[in-house]
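Give me structure tokens for this 210-residue protein.
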Amino acid sequence: MDQVRQIRFLIPPFILFVSLIWGVFWSDPNHILWSEFLGSNLLAKVGILLTSTLPAGYLIGLFKVFILKFLFCRSPHSYECHISIETLKLMSQEANISFNEDKFEAYNNKDRKRIEHFTQVMFDHGLIYNKYKGVHEWMVRRWSSFNISIDSVIALLLALIFGLIFKIHLSIVWIAFSVILCLGFIVMAYWSYNDTMKMNEFQAKYFRIV
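Here you go.
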């Protein structure tokens, strides 16, 4: 597994566990549950948390994919690629892909998404990677930032859900902490997503790749 993907899988579970621990601490004024948590088999609990980090990160990522695909199911674009017809034409030309706008418009939603996404993959991971590797790496970092931010929002929401399941009191401090972090991550996700798509358009319009 590459280093970027490892980071994407490690950060959201860490946020999930920290949020749960924070919730336990603020679950009652006397911190009785917190004392019980620290006092019994602490090393075993820490070991379980560490060994479950990567699987938890993968599962959070799966939740993210299902949620975003559902939200974009009626959109003409997939969540992975949101570019204009003009940009798609330019990308196709640079990648030597046959593109006919009339035929493209006649395709169903699923096929248009697939063509748009695959063209973007060839353009970004093929042409830009080969000629402008530094730019490609910058785009990977921005896209990773988007994924980590969305996964972290899901992790914070899951922590609250687990709190309800395990009857941990949802204190005002815990809820406020989660809401503030969620808003911050959503803003970061928007900025990162926008940067990635705009860079694709910029490369297609102003640079000749081949």
